[in-house]
Amino acid sequence: MEYKIIKKETIVLHPQQDPPERRIPSEIRFDPLTGRTARICHFMKLKWEKPDFQALTAGTEAWCPFCPDKVLQVTPLFPPDLIPEGRLQKGDMVLFPNIAPYDAVGAVATFGSRHFIPMTEFTQELMVQAFGLALDFLRRVEATGHKEAVYPIVNWNYMPPAGSSLIHAHLQVFATSTAPNLMRQELQASERYRQTQGAVYWEDLIASEEGEGKRYLGKIGRSHWLIAFAPMGVAGDVLAIWEDVHRTLDLNDEDLADMAEGLGRVMGAYDRMGIYSFNMNFFTGAKGDDHFRFHLLFSPRTFFNQKLGATDIGALRNLYNETLCLAYPEEICEMVRPGFSGHR
Description:
Elements: E1 5-13, E2 21-30, E3 37-40, H1 53-57, H2 60-63, H3 71-74, E4 88-90, E5 93-97, E6 105-110, H4 124-143, E7 151-158, E8 170-176, H5 181-197, H6 201-212, E9 216-220, E10 223-227, E11 238-242, H7 253-272, E12 277-283, E13 295-301, E14 303-305, E15 310-311, H8 315-320, E16 323-325, H9 329-336
Parallel strand pairs: 3-16
Antiparallel strand pairs: 1-2, 2-3, 4-5, 5-6, 6-8, 7-8, 7-12, 9-10, 10-11, 11-13, 12-13, 14-15
Helix pairs in contact: 4-7
């Protein structure tokens, strides 16, 4: 496993200071699988101020289409050849067609009737039920033989900094025959690794990270949790990889419970940093992709400047797809790891 780093240094002069010279380090890191680069720079203390949530959410319940007084009246229905009952429901959770779909088969799944759920109040039971509802839908789609039922994907945009246009917590669920860019790159690189190395990259990565210990958080069930070496997010990313699971629909109830437990620990750690928003994506293989292992990526979202509302994605990320992180992933690991005590 090659962890390639190019170390760099910037020299600036401050004539009013003694000594005037200041040396600023930075790094370019290469993802061990795809070669994608990430820049470790703009170092700052990972501590943000949370907003006034009452002010942030005030009035949004009145027009929210996912709240219980509206969700069954304003949301659309699936065609009967896909979901005969129109929508799926589990308790107070509802899954229905996405009116702004990412693909031919897309859904939204709510986390229930509660309008605003703080990040640290997503219980294990709540997340297991929501992920279970999403998987129920994806299994139903696959059972129809739909041509898009190749890659079953679940995404979670939590709160506006992560791109959520609604406060009410929900999942984006879709099936697609066209793998998204990074997932496609990982699938292709995983297959090449298997052909050239005669091994599964993800198993080698787990063994390497657990042995090295610099970014490894812990194991829950058959899932391994670690901080990504070349992160996408400005405050690092948490990567969770499942042993012997190739795709989303291979997950069982115990896996979902382990997923929810790990995510709860991660959310607690980032909440202590003052971060209250994140993206989470499932990365899945298709049937027969035995070179791949199902994994999820949790990426916290925040602001470069909270007072101005300056997003954490600028030209570097938006147009070059070059990511930057404000701290060394190994230091971020030390901040997140206490939540995983007893899971080494």
